[in-house]
Amino acid sequence: MQPLDLRLRHRFTIARSSDDVSHTLILRLFARGIEALGEVTPSKRYEEDVELIRRQLAAVELAGADLLDVPATLARLPSEQRGAMCALDLALHDFAGKLLGMPAYELFGLQPDDAKPTSFTIGIADLDETVAKVREAVHMPILKVKLGAGREFETLEAIRAIYGGTIRVDANEGWTPEEAVQCLRELARFELEFCEQPVPAGHPEQLRYVRERSPVPIFTDEDSITADDVPRLAGCVDGVNVKLVKCGGMREAVRMIRAAREHGMKVMIGCMIETSVLSTAAAHLTPLADYADIDGPLLILDDPFAGVTYDGARLRLPTAPGLGVRVRAAA
145, 177 in Cβ contact below 8 A? Predict the structure, then answer.
């Protein structure tokens, strides 16, 4: 296991926190002459950190495990250890693909040309810095703009003055229900595609209140962790954000996507600020989704891995077996 500190291109600020460095953990699994990679970028929001997950993974006994039996192997971890499960899940799918000579998307019966285009995230900053960051990203056809700290109207007005592409917004639990309705009614003139997690998680009835009054579609993030969360959100939101770190990896992400479809909800596959190991794994599943927000490697300066590549917003999946991720020569 290898902890990494990833330096960000810009300070990344959302409604509840601000960071210059993202902390992640790389898992290397060796079996049958194969080295398989996994990753987890834990979030303080879910009371996880790199050291905690390192201890959890170190305690897993894999002797005698059939590594191709992903459910049984993952069951060696307690179900609440989602971050550790994510790292192990990715390594198991990387191992299976390498052993079978198949890219991860083929393990799920998916086609790489169906990968969805990604948004690019603009964190909270003062207006001059926000405009500068948008100018850097003006070639990206989809932006996700972080809100929830005030001056929302001025922020969107400044962005729309120089940017004509698709805009999604994410308040990261930063508003009350009443504030959310008022803000989204005012911001609707900027032609927003949807708003992510406008109110604090844990209150589906508040999401329903906002959705029934908002001209902008509503998605969850912090409210949708695993497939078990999806049924209670039915009728309260238009869609859910599925993140491998939150749910426990690729296998649970697929289960979560199926649950969302069963309840008539749209799906976005998202990411943390992470290396190409995690983002490539998420990209392999985007053919199952409606939207993608997989820009983690674009937000950091020193990604030691190469995997998914970006043609503007288009995700190009690697064709090598497994996740298709390799260590960069300079790393």
Answer: no
